Amino acid sequence: xxxxxxxxxxxxxxxxxxxxxxxxxxxxxxxxxxxxxxxxxxxxxxxxxxxxxxxxxxxxxxxxxxxxxxxxxxxxxxxxxxxxxxxxxxxxxxxxxxxxxxxxxxxxxxxxxxxxxxxxxxxxxxxxxxxxxxxxxxxxxxxxxxxxxxxxxxxxxxxxxxxxxxxxxxxxxxxxxxxxxxxxxxxxxxxxxxxxxxxxxxxxxxxxxxxxxxxxxxxxxxxxxxxxxxxxxxxxxxxxxxxxxxxxxxxxxxxxxxxxxxxxxxxxxxxxxxxxxxxxxxxxxxxxxxxxxxxxxxxxxxxxxxxxxxxxxxxxxxxxxxxxxxxxxxxxxxxxxxxxxxxxxxxxxxxxxxxxxxxxxxxxxxxxxxxxxxxxxx
Length: 378
Hints:
5-stranded parallel β-sheet, globular, alpha/beta, Rossmann fold
């Protein structure tokens, strides 16, 4: 899916501000685009780059010129993407760069430019590794920007999640971010801007993107997802301006579906006190790899909270997809004031142990045994 201004969900005020900056030739050379998750920061950055690089008409990219045809497929030679990747090599000289994963990146963008960080982790197929923007990436950026624009216009670098940039690499970019070549724009799209080194923050103009409004969420859900007005209103309320959350409420990703199945299995074997099945469950989870184990434990904690809240019959406060709700209708009475803190502590302790590289089979088997007591204590 391509992204022009017309494709962005809501955010008309921000878009108009950015558009005027381009039209009046007063766009800063480096923007730090930030705000809550799921508000469309990356789509806005892409739409801004497209508008700048098209330059045919005022208001939005035309969508039909040779530049726009390439931009639609994310193959324009002067639009550069930088994003966290997993390392394929061993030495510092062989660290991976974004171009090593550009095919996967384009595929995800074409499918859904509102994808989440978790979607990218799944795409990278990570096990025990946190993705990073390595030092070598800075050299690649400097080299690309030292060349003339191949299309004869602007060069744009979109850095997604710059807070995950290696500090040495970030320092290498300071000078070019402060004084870029003519007709060069940096767009830094950040979830956690305060984690970016201060010297880079000070060289950018900050653009705060708000949450998507209730009305814009409702309209988009009806137009894009085919929901009725009533369903769109409910999902918009529950997602609280987060389009990623809205999509999660409507359907489970393949990875989340797997986590739901593991969560259901854990609770069922704990209730049945089936030690043999607990051991099998623990071995299954231990084979996932550390990063997926941590995400599973995050997911379990979220499900426990949602099930506790479900007992209060406040549908607008529940943030679960339909498959999650189907299970929780019967399971939620098992999570209450007498055991919720105990269950959450067991999950949190298991997460701490996994982060400390304690043997995963032992951690998960021990946690499942302890869960028997809390599930029965209702």
